[in-house]
Amino acid sequence: MQLPATASPSSLPSLRLLLLLVPLLVWSLSHPDRLTAQVTGSASDSSTAGLPGSGTQSTSLRVFVDCGWFCDNEFLRTEITFVTFVRDRADADVQVIVTRLGAGGGGEVYTIDYVGLRRFDGVNSTAHYTSPPGSSQDARRTGLTRSIAAGLVRYVTDTPVAAGLTISYVPPAASEIGAREDPWNAWVFKVGANGSMDDEARQTRFNLSSDVSARRITEAWKLGVGASGSINTDHYELDDRSVRNRREQYRTGAILVRSLGAHWGAGAEAAVSSSTYDNMKLAVRFAPAVEYSFFPYSEATRRQLTIQYSAGVSSYEYHEETIFDRLAETRPTQSLVAGYDMRQPWGSADATLEAATYLDDLAKNSMRFDGRLSLRLVRGLELDLRGSAALVRDQLALVKRDATEEEILLRRRELATSYRYSMRVGLSYTFGSIFSSVVNPRFGSGPGRVLR
């Protein structure tokens, strides 16, 4: 039996529209470690600093903060009171771009880029903040805020507000001075479990998942092992019968990577998995891989363009007989993945293009594209594009028998398809006052809720 034929172009108008994102994304290509400087503005009270009519807007530094969901913007505005926060880059003297990457010891490394604008055009700098492993959310946001504030001091010194600043230094404890000894030798372990249940008169849902991992990350090596599993059950009471649905998925894997300079990395991946949805009783894969980065890996928080090739072998054992009359098989595989990620003052973009095939049958292959583009078009106007598209010709595990109505509606098993795609387009326009320093937490952080 042959796999389903690829859908004709006329049947995929949205897919063709989605693929237009590819050239648009291609076009877009054109610490203070010990000085935890507590900078406070004594020139004005925190409840009125930067407020309309307070007299500080014309003299204080205007700052636009470009940070992801991991930043507590309200905390920033309440703690850093010696600047005026604005809501658009076009009105700012300095743009602060914050990105982050996971650290080998379990903490997080934040890169803080200061981009000078208007009178500070060309005055740029970079700072870093590393959160300790296991630190609380409050400790992370406090440390990040202090680092951001310390970097803004160089700009504030050229404003009248500088006369009201005081800088304090907190020396490290004596036990922290000197060479650090790590009894764990850079190993970090994590164990977790989650469970949830929703119950009504005629339907019940139960979800249970768990994971365990261990990793060791140094400049020269990256080693990680982990295992995870999930069980999802649904129970529905219909007028004439009861319907039960159960999905299980388990996976364990390991990765070993060796750093080969500023642009290269080589390693291998191994994985063992099982999934009722995918008809996989047991899947085993091993694949060595090599990766090249067009930009130095040290610039990964701001821009990254990589290409990775892997070749290996995969062995499958199925729950039910497949459309190719197989209950088990072993095949050589290969894949090529290109990834692009950039965050700049004008916005951000990331894209991934992956192609995979079986070496013993090149006709059985797949290709997938995922992309996101966020642009600041003009003052207050932002465009957000997200989407994915895939051509699928490698569904070896499809069950031979016809799917039941319950299996289709409850998404109990994978169905035959030659394509997948999704897309999202968003456009927002913000106008009005350029200042955003005021924080009023009454009735929540939003403008209000609709009561019912």
Quick tags:
452 residues, mainly beta, Rossmann fold, 12-stranded antiparallel sheet, 5-stranded mixed sheet, 5 helices, globular, disordered N terminus
The number of distinct helices, counting runs of at least 4 residues, comes to: 5
Poorly predicted regions are 1-12, 26-56
Give the CA-CA distance, first to last residue. 56 Å
What proportion of the residues form beta strands (DSSP E)? over 45%
Task: Please state the average pLDDT score.
Answer: 81
Number of E strands: 19
* Order of strands across the main sheet: 8-9-10-11-12-13-14-15-16-17-18-19
The helicity comes to 10-25%
Shape: globular
Helices and strands: which structural class? Answer: mainly beta
What integer value in Å does the Rg equal?
A: 27 Å
Following the backbone from N to C, one meets helices and strands in this order, namely: HHEEHEEEEHEEEEEEEEEEEEHE
Biggest pleated-sheet summary = 12 strands, antiparallel
